[in-house]
Each structure stands twice: as C-alpha cells, then as structure tokens.
Specification:
With 346 residues, the protein is of the alpha+beta class. It has 13 helices and twelve strands. The chain folds into three domains: 165 residues, no CATH class; 53 residues, no CATH class; 110 residues, no CATH class. The strands form four sheets. The chain has a five-stranded antiparallel β-sheet. β8 and β9 form a beta hairpin. α2 packs parallel to α6.
C-alpha cells in the first residue's frame, strides 16, 4: 500500500470522526468531545504522512510495521513541532491554543468519569463554542495553508461547515435565555463586553490581579483576559490585548513585546541577586511565546496570552524556564528544544 493511499485512509477517518462528533453533539456530548479531538489529531498526522510517513512515528519503524499499525504515533505537541521543523508549515499560535483546548477537554472525558448524557446546558454551550473555534482554525489550515494536500476534500469541508450551523443556533438560543442575567449584571455596574469567540455581548469580569482582568463569557464560557496597561508616554490607561504589542489610543505611542515585558516585569534586581541566574523572562508553553513570561504580583504572567502561574519549571534538557509542566522534558524536550529524542535523531 502506498503512502498516498494511507494518507487518503487517514483523511477519510478524520472526516468520519468529525461527522460522528457532530452527530453526538446534542445527545452524547462526551463522545462528541472525544471524536472531535481525534479528527483534529488525524488531520495533523495526515499532513505529516503526506510529507514523510516516518514523521508520524515516535521512533524509527519499518514500513511493514507502519502499514500494520504496529508503532507508536506522535503526540499532539510532537506533531506540532514536526510540522514546524520538518514540514516548514507551522500551526499558527492561536490555532494551536484552540486545538490544545480540545485536547485537554478530550483527556478529561477519557480519564475522569462523566455520565455520557448528563451535561449541564452551560457545559454543552462551551463544547459548541470550543468546537467552532477549533473548526475555524482547522478549516483555514485544510483549505488554505495545506490546500495542496487536502484540495480534493473541499466538498466534505463545506458539508462539515453546514452541519456545524446547529452549534451556532444552540449558542444563539443560550444567549437569548441569558438576557435577564446579562441585564442584571449591567444594572449592578458590571461592564459587559463582546466575546471574541461566539461574538455575543456576554463577557463579564470574574476577578482581577493587579491590572490583569479576568473575565468569562456567559454564553460559551470562554475565559478572557486583558491587562490595563499604563502608557509610558502619556500615562493614560487602556487595554492591552493578547498578542504582545501595544499602540496607545490616546497618544499613538507604540511598545513592542520587549518594552511591554520591561514595563510589566516586577522582578526587583538588588545587590544581593544581581549575579543570580534569574528565571524571567521565561517561555510560555501555552502560546509558545519566547521569553514572554515576566514576574507580576508574585506570579508569573505571559504578556502575550496572559496565562499566569504561581511557579516556573526548567526544561531538564535545555534548562530553559517555562510556565508549563516539564515532566518528561529530558526525553521529549520543551517548546524550544527537542530533548534527547531530537538529539539522537539528528
């Protein structure tokens, strides 16, 4: 069997899992989550397979074993690394975050028992929004960036797009049901913003750490964050949105990522710690930000995506500090190295 045929089988399987995810959305949301993520992962592996079948396997394997399925396939993180380094076609940071959200939700469904049909309304709406965000990014990859690989499946992708209209209708119904609650929030002086995901005006503040505002959408439960940034030029305060760049709406002053990091970082350099190997700026495993994590309000804040953690961990292979879990990094590396496996492969 040729790699072309294997790739076709993999894509057909991915489309089948997408269809099953949509079928299960209303009555069996647990399996919708599992099937949707399976489809995402299969599409990523299909792109690797089109490039070189060896990229799909964790360790070198002969083709007969590969055809028989007798091998361990790459994880989501490793697939993303190989798409960037080996295929030279990286997944955009925002898409990676949205796919990762689906992956984490899938892991929760698989590893922690949940009654298959016992989902609250807000849980189902969160699943709908999560899948719509992931499909938006996946569809762009399949029909634009990777068009040369998947162009024969354009009719299938249009069909999937039409089928997902049910998700959008579900969110609209949810928004209409929430109108009394949203009106009460406004009456209490709470600012209500438009959600960047479902596009409904339903984002309310849930907490604040210094100038970091945390919020959530009442419709789709998407967590949102912004930083109330003080312009170093005119001293006016305005929102610093995700992305690591700031242009003051009052005076036009512009700060790049490095300047923002310096202005927000609260690490105090003293005579006693001047020569220490400081942990910040560190790297963000959530958005793949390089040296975007600074110290803020006794925590560690990524100025690009606003992920904040209480601790940092260092990669056991390259020593870089990151805000994510570095267990196994000696073997698999972190977002900025390939670990021992990459060294042995090279």
């Amino acid at each position: 069997m040729s790699t072309q045929v294997l790739t076709k089988h993999l894509i057909d399987n991915a489309i089948d899992f997408l269809d099953r995810a949509i079928d299960d959305f209303k009555d069996h949301p647990k399996y919708s989550v599992i099937n949707f993520y399976t489809a995402v992962e299969l599409f990523l592996k299909a792109r690797l397979l089109h490039q070189d079948w060896l990229l799909v396997a964790v360790k070198p394997v002969d083709f007969d074993s590969f055809q028989a399925g007798d091998f361990s396939s790459v994880s989501f993180d490793e697939a993303c690394k190989r798409l960037r380094k080996e295929v030279n076609s990286p997944i955009p940071d925002q898409a990676k975050q949205n796919f990762n959200a689906i992956r984490k939700h899938r892991n929760k469904m698989v590893h922690f028992f949940h009654e298959a049909d016992d989902f609250a309304s807000d849980e189902v709406s969160a699943i709908a929004a999560e899948q719509l965000r992931a499909w938006y990014d996946l569809n762009k990859l399949l029909t634009a960036q990777w068009r040369d690989v998947f162009n024969t499946y354009s009719k299938d992708f249009l069909r999937i797009e039409r089928r997902l209209s049910g998700h959008r209708e579900y969110l609209r119904t949810k928004y209409l049901d929430l109108q009394p609650q949203i009106a009460a929030q406004r009456a209490n002086g709470v600012e209500v913003r438009i959600c960047s995901s479902c596009c409904y005006e339903a984002v309310v503040t849930t907490g604040q750490i210094g100038n970091l505002v945390e919020a959530a959408c009442l419709v789709c439960r998407l967590s949102a964050s912004w930083f109330e940034y003080v312009c170093p030029s005119c001293s006016q305060q305005s929102d610093l949105d995700e992305g690591g760049s700031f242009t003051c709406p009052h005076c036009g002053h512009h700060d790049d990522e490095a300047a923002i990091g310096e202005n927000i970082n609260q690490l105090i350099i003293t005579h006693d710690n001047y020569f220490d190997d400081h942990t910040v700026p560190a790297n963000c495993t959530e958005c793949s930000g390089h040296r975007t994590v600074v110290e803020y309000e006794s925590r560690y804040l990524c100025i690009a995506c606003f992920t904040h953690t209480e601790t940092l961990e260092s990669c056991d292979w390259c020593g870089e500090h990151n805000n994510g879990d570095m267990e196994g990094s000696a073997v698999f590396g972190c977002g900025f190295c390939d670990g021992r496996i990459g060294w042995e492969r090279d």
